[in-house]
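dumping this here so i dont lose it
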């Protein structure tokens, strides 16, 4: 009897540990999302972020082309929902914290992804020369590039310094 009780307790403890480690889609609304990819050149090959501020204004800041300048555009709540849907469909909430290849690579590329939700949860993942097997990151980038097409170019300090010379 004692043996069965101990076995039952051990199995229950193991089950609870497994259940606690299962990653689920956050229940809250998406508040912000960032995706960046770096190549061998200096700076970001691609950079994009979506942010919903405290007044409810949603802004996309992203590049239209690799290593290009940043553009900005206001988005609708429906647009923000599209990003949330990509995360859910591709199960991006199950991404590992870090992706690395099995062999050492001295050159190559890296990426980072972060999403924050209104329920206080966040998803954060990054990689170097490796990534998840699904298309989630590419879909995020494609949606950003589609939405930013009619965005307005943002002036940067580097450009202002060039104008002063």
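and the seq i came up w/
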């Amino acid at each position: 009897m004692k043996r069965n009780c101990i076995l039952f307790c051990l199995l229950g403890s193991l089950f609870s540990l497994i259940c606690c480690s299962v990653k689920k889609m956050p229940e809250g609304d998406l508040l912000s999302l960032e995706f960046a990819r770096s190549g061998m050149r200096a700076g970001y090959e691609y950079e994009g972020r979506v942010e919903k501020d405290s007044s409810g204004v949603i802004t996309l800041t992203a590049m239209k082309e690799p290593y290009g300048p940043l553009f900005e555009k206001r988005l609708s709540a429906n647009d923000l929902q599209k990003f949330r849907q990509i995360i859910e469909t591709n199960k991006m909430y199950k991404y590992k914290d870090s992706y690395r290849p099995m062999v050492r690579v001295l050159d190559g590329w890296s990426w980072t992804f972060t999403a924050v939700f209104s329920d206080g949860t966040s998803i954060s993942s990054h990689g170097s020369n490796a990534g998840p097997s699904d298309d989630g990151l590419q879909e995020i980038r494609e949606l950003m590039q589609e939405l930013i097409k009619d965005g307005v170019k943002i002036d940067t300090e580097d450009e202002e310094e060039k104008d002063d010379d």
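The chain has a mean pLDDT of 86.
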